[in-house]
Amino acid sequence: MIEESLSDNKVWELCIVGSGPVGMATALECEKLGQDVLLLEAGDASFDPSAASDSHAEIVDPDRHAPMEIAVCRALGGTSWTWGGRCVAYDDVDLMPREFVPNAPWPISHGEIRPWYQPATDYLFCGGDRFEIPLGRKLSGGLTLDWVERWARESRVILLHRERLLASKRIHISLKSVVTQINLGPRNSVGERPLQSLTVKTPNGDATVRARRVILAMGGVETTRLLLHTQQQWPELGGGIDGPLGRYYMGHISGKIASILFNDSKTVTDLDFKLDSTGAYIRRRFMLTAETQIQHRVLNTAFWPDNPAFYDPSHKSGVLSSVFLALAFPPTGRRLLSEAIRLAHTGPRPYRLGAHLRNAILGAPRGAVDIYRILRDRFIRKPKKPGFLVPNAGRKYALHYHAEQVPDPESRISLSSERDSFGLQRAQIDLRFTEQDVQSVLDSHALLDQALQSSGIGRLEYFYEGQDLRKKVWAQAADGFHQVGSTRMGTDPAQSVVDPDLKVHGVDNLYVASSSVFPTSGQANSTLLAVAFGLRLVHHLHNSTHELSTADHASQPA
């Protein structure tokens, strides 16, 4: 239900700040457990892109990080409004100690979080937690096709959860409510500060929110920004000034530097999107086994065949040029794809519109049938197909890679001198990549090429040679959507921001549910794991509350 105003006197059992995929899932899980929760959302009930102006950040290197205005959404549902719907589990190797990956200790094992994938996939509508589906054929060279990614049946999951959120008697939603200050009290007997209240700006003026426990689920950058703002008053927070808070900021390197040429034209059908028995789409990816990664000291990377770049008319495909023309016209393109994905497909200006028009005209007879099929699968059928591969007689496709980057303490979020309309200092983002990140992309491609050939599947053809290949990987080293690492978890308060149960070190009732707690980025995008951690946290808090109430009851005199 919507809270029209916030009472300064009420004490909530739990307050969740942020209603994106993690915040809404944790709130709904609280309802399932019979708990009341206050859900604070900075935006309104519906998506308004202009609201993201208060998330604007100073980007040190704009070639490395997307503008925050398109990386986040301030609205009920958060970034689920622009999320692509891709759900990928982390791999065991991501949480294992790897001697060649510095600054990457996880305080828990993958086995401790794996049980939470199932409820997370329920909230994300991606058809279950089965991410290993054996191909039935053993490949050589350390190559595997046994792992799949899943896709939400509706990527804008808020549309499927909104009615339940708004109708719930236990979930109390306060919109246009921006937390501007976390107020801490004096240290208690064990040296921790209690969170006494939140200062919240609302349309009705400033409000004071009191809660026994608070979960920050505002996304990686915004959560980090609020904690950095709090650290200015309590310098010991987050490991101290210039400690781990804000450092080790990561995402992924993602792009294309090669084509994959299949020996058999039918092979690509195994790698296209397929509906599984749950009614959700899945897709297989080429990956190197954990043993191969460790043996060759490469970071985790996933690969899949894709269409050639839409924006390059040299593909001579009437279908791809027609799609490009639709995406290049902003009013049409923004209806088809989120702005971030649209810009990735339209590429750099100036657009070669004449060449694309020629492709579209020459390919019209065959292209019309293919375009109808694409439009049907993308916009008419439910669930919509997440993407499409246009078959070609040459058996050649672009090869997309999605690669891990190493944690780097100099890659960081700090505070800018500029302030937003609420008086908060804006974030300054310095996302950095390293030579190890780039070399791993190159080495992983070389290992993949060898394995493809030894397995009789095909081979790679690189777009560039020598140093030009390395330069292209560097040019593709950019992210901003997968906000990992800046409030990392760990057991040592000097080296981490939250403990293994996601409680902020030194504060006895403040928690973070965000991809920012991950010590490594893995090959997977972060939404599924972040939701899984949020659900694990809710149950931890519920169980600990029950244990305390049971202990209190037992201590009462008969």
TrEMBL record:
Gene3D superfamilies: FAD/NAD(P)-binding domain. PANTHER family: PYRANOSE 2-OXIDASE (PTHR42784:SF1). Keywords: FAD, Flavoprotein, Oxidoreductase. Belongs to the GMC oxidoreductase family. Its cofactor is FAD. This is GMC oxidoreductase. Residues 407-534 form the Glucose-methanol-choline oxidoreductase C-terminal domain. The keyword Flavoprotein applies. Coiled coil: none annotated. SUPFAM superfamilies: FAD/NAD(P)-binding domain. The keyword Oxidoreductase applies.
